[in-house]
Amino acid sequence: MPFSTITTPEARPVANYKMATRMEGGRLLYVSGQVAWDASGNIVGKGDVGAQARQTFQNLRQVLQAAGGDLGSLMKITTYITRIDDFPAVAEARSAVFSGELPASTLIVVKSLFHPDFLIEVEGVAAV
């Protein structure tokens, strides 16, 4: 099956993976986990989950826009956080970026993400 790869200059993969992939002719877009990298590859908001959540959702938005969608195109997100006590700040950041219909979502608390300074990661499935 032919797949297309979605990339953005602001949110580049740092390893051997795709930011997002879609089967040609299909509407479903699978977005890889986004973290709080800025366009220069720096971690935004070290120690501040609210700042990291805002950057993470911005990166997610940029990938979706590169594919012709936006946050409203999301059907499902999975959010990974490293501390359950950070949930209120993440929920606040999430509420600020989503209006109207919310995507189905899952929250998972993990011991660590791939870099110790990351406090949140969000992946999604969208229809674009």
Primary descriptors:
single chain; 128 residues; alpha+beta; 6-stranded mixed sheet; 2 helices; 6 strands; 23% helix; globular
Fold topology:
Layout: E1 3-6, E2 20-23, E3 28-34, H1 49-66, E4 74-81, H2 87-97, E5 104-109, E6 120-127
Parallel strand pairs: 4-5
Antiparallel strand pairs: 1-2, 2-3, 3-6, 4-6
Helix pairs in contact: 1-2
Description:
Helices cover 23% and strands 29% of the residues. It has 2 helices and 6 strands, in the order E-E-E-H-E-H-E-E. A 6-stranded mixed β-sheet has the order 1-2-3-6-4-5, with helices on one face. Helix 1 runs parallel beside helix 2. 34% of the residues are buried. The mean pLDDT is 89.
Summary?
The chain is α+β, with helices and mostly antiparallel strands and 128 residues long. The chain has two helices and six strands, in the order βββαβαββ. Strands 1-2-3-6-4-5 form a six-stranded mixed beta sheet, covered by helices on one side.
Using only C-alpha atoms, the radius of gyration works out to: 14 Å
Give the topology string: H per helix, E per strand. EEEHEHEE
Binned strand content: 25-35%
Overall geometric form:
globular
Total beta-strand segments: 6
Gap between N and C termini, in Å?
Answer: 18 Å
| Largest β-sheet summary | 6 strands, mixed
Helix/strand structural class: alpha+beta
Mean pLDDT: 89
The percent of residues in helical segments reads 10-25%
| Major beta sheet, strand line-up | 1-2-3-6-4-5
Name the quaternary structure: single chain
**Unreliable segments of 5+ consecutive residues:** none
Number of helices, counting only DSSP H or I runs of 4 residues or more:
2
